[in-house]
Amino acid sequence: MHVLLEELKPGLRIDGLVPAEVVTLIAAQPHGRDAVELTFKTAGGALDQQIVFRRDEGRLSIARSGSRAFDANVRDFKLAAEAQRISLAGLFDPMLAVATSDVQPLPHQIRAVYGELMPRTPLRFLLADDPGAGKTIMAGLYIKELLLRDDVRRCLIVAPGGLVDQWQDELFFKFGLRFDLLTNQLGDSQLHLNVFEAHPLLIARMDQLSRNERLKAQLRETDWDLIVVDEAHRMGGHYFGGKVEKTKRFQLGEMLGEITRHLLLMTATPHSGKEEDFQLFLTLLDRDRFEGRQKTSADVGGVMRRMIKEDLLTFEGRKLFPERLAETVPYELTALEYDLYEDVTQYVREGMNRADRIGGTRKNTVGFALTVLQRRLASSPEAIYKSLVRRTERLERRRQEILDGARCESMPAVDLASFDRDDFDAQEIEEIEEDLLDAATAARTVEELDAELVELRRLVRMAQRVREAGTDRKWTELSALLRDHALVMDAEGNPRKLIVFTEHRDTLRYLQAKIGSLLGRDDAVKAIHGGVRRAERRQITEEFTKNRHVLILLATDAAGEGLNLQVAHLMINYDLPWNPNRIEQRFGRIHRIGQEEVCRLWNLVASNTREGEVFTRLLEKLDQMRETYGGKVFDVLGEAFAETPLRDLLLDAIQYGEQPAVKGRMHEVIDSTVGDGLKSLLDERALASEHLSDADLRALRATMDDAHARRLEPHDIESTFKDAFTRLGGRIVKRAQGRHEIAHVPQHVRSAGDGPISIKYDHVTFDLGRVQPDDRARTDLLAPGHPLHDAVMAETIRNLKNALNRGTVLISASLDAPHLLVGVVEEVVDGAGESVARRFSYAYVDSRGTVHPAGPAPYLDCAAAPDGTASDVVHGLPWLADAESKATSWIIANRLPGYLAEVQPRRLAELTKTRDLVTKRLTSESERLLLDATAASEKERRGEKPKESAESLHRKAVELDVRLRKRLELLDQQQQMSTKPPQILTAALVLSVSDLPSRE
């Protein structure tokens, strides 16, 4: 019945104020005789206000009973309720991403995602597990889980250039997530739009963002829910003297932290060996907690997780990774090779000495180019010959340019330390080497160039003689390994696959021809380097992985980054890298999840060369350490050389290696670095890293079982999707073997999606087992997270929302009295208004207002009540009028305290720890600055000039005090956790068979 304005009072349930919804009045404020300002609560629990006038009385009525009419069509109600349940599945299935992704996560991955990442809101975390532990899988699960829970809508992934394609593939093929790549074409196609605003799921190259000011300006204007940074150690800053050097990448990292709610950094090499640089890197996660320069170890609890691959286990408690063995294969150069080695080394030494006299940035650039030449000398006769020829030709052109008066191109500056810090990926290094090798010279006049060219032409002739002699000792050693039947054949007599790493393309091509000839089949050998395009690289990798006739893969470091090659377990380092981190990165290509064989590595070393002596000593010490620590020695090899880079030792050997004192110092450094240094690093890691105990494994298995029990069944998703999709005008046709074809997706469905939706799909399935990721004609998994699936669910809920709001009447054989069925969302928030935890469930409410669980989808087991039951029965159940209100009160009194008690302790512990660490760090840093300000003031009074003025130091101290106060205010808000009123999303009246009115 219609209601008059004068009758509108708090507590009434009113129909007609909000379309298709009954609301509860909270307050009614008259304004004159013909207008009332109403404050009301919607069925979803939201507060709103509206002014109604006398002319609106005809559309307002008091709800007949309770807050629902219970007259919705049962089929509409069930479909809408299922669409709603599936859309909210992330709130009741704690591992929905696992159930809807083509992955089989391992214990350490489950604990990382669901034990470390998911509980932290907002997230600031460094995932630092060893190479090959599957960090991309962990990130994919985390991203998808947050997308499914509607906690993330905008996600940006930042990765080195060589890995962005792999990220896009992994997210699509394993998780069904379609991320766009930020290419130049994508940016240019939206010239007048912010490309970051237009693409909510985006992958970008790290240096593309750090070096492009226009893109950085656009990025700074956006907000993200989640940003993931891969190989994040490349964003590290560095201390030089008393100052911080903030690289472009570091500045990008600082900006990313400012524009996102969740920030996940990932790297297998977080610590360069310098504690102060490590803590500077950690400021990207929490500037207040890691402020200032300190050499004592940082407390990384709550912001970092690191697991060593040798400690990783399967759910059955078995070691996840097999053993790693490394063997040195020493050889001596022939007399002819040795003469060439000595003469080229002398040329390199003289060039370095001239560069030393020049000084400045030119010294580093020339020195770098000459070390590349030296490494190619050690690589192969082919590599040194072609490099000498190209260098001769390039310097001849430079000589002519000087004679013609033309301006010579300037040489870029090179920071050698950046190579040892792993600031560049292998492909970038390969490109820099190619640019500089042939052109960088200390000669600045025609006369100096003439002298160098005379020497170069002589070296070219020597290299040609060695090349034509065909007595390549290094190749002899490799060919012996390849002919070793016990090595290259398995127990059944089948050939094993093997990977050979070299540093140079000339050597790679040389080996490809030689090995093809040795095996008698060119097609048995495949080669990839940094210049091979993505599609071709994928094809080569596919051939090596799947084709039993392809036995050998030749690769440079640029090609090796990001590849999963566990199909092989044998590897040869034809060239040893000067950056020790590369040894582990290469080994990590085969020593990965899925590898079941013992991994073996052979290192070829020319023992009668200066560099060979250094490598021989290094490998001997590594072998000794391996007996105690196993393969773990490779994990920290790069960190061990933080104080004295391996590159420096090798350069000293080249320039001064014949001096006994220099040789003795090199041996001392290697012995202390690899002996004592590795021991202390490994002991430190053993204390800092996490381990999985038997109890941990049991708990993880129980968590997985619990998630499986709550999981959406594929047949539920399939039946709901088909019903909803056909109602929306879509066409789906069943094909063979559990697959379907989507013949047409209506425009209004495509428009409702958050991601790209095709007009048709040739192959879709609802069964994860039917997805074949290796099949280029990808079969899409229609499940939560797929754009088409989610769009259909969203559009169905929008169209049938009235059925959810009005409710329906159902018949249950398992009840003996009428109950109200409600779908409830419960939520914990902090004082800053941020959501800390949410969950969704169904519950029954009895006539007394008591609530008890009803299972995941009780309406599916209920039948439709006969027509007219609502009007017959509802009026006879007066308790329905306030059943939802009683249910809300019961949940507030009996369930929410337990939910808060479940969520609160861990969060409070983290916040308390953060408060203590932030207070201690900022206070101590402020006190240090004030002491320095006092000392600077004294100097200024004496007329001296301090490094930094007292005023500047004092201002920085005051800024830290302000930051501390603001951070403590935020922590106070975050510690004040509470529960929001429960939100009842829908309801239905469920009767027993005996409750049905008689029709006699």
TrEMBL record:
The keyword Transit peptide does not apply. SMART domains: DEXDc, HELICc. InterPro entries: DEXDc_RapA, Helicase_ATP-bd, Helicase_C-like, P-loop_NTPase, SNF2-like_sf, SNF2/RAD54-like_C, SNF2_N. The keyword Zinc does not apply. Residues 116-288 form the Helicase ATP-binding domain. Residues 481-650 form the Helicase C-terminal domain. Pfam families: Helicase_C (PF00271), SNF2-rel_dom (PF00176). Residues 931-954 are annotated as: Disordered. This is Helicase.
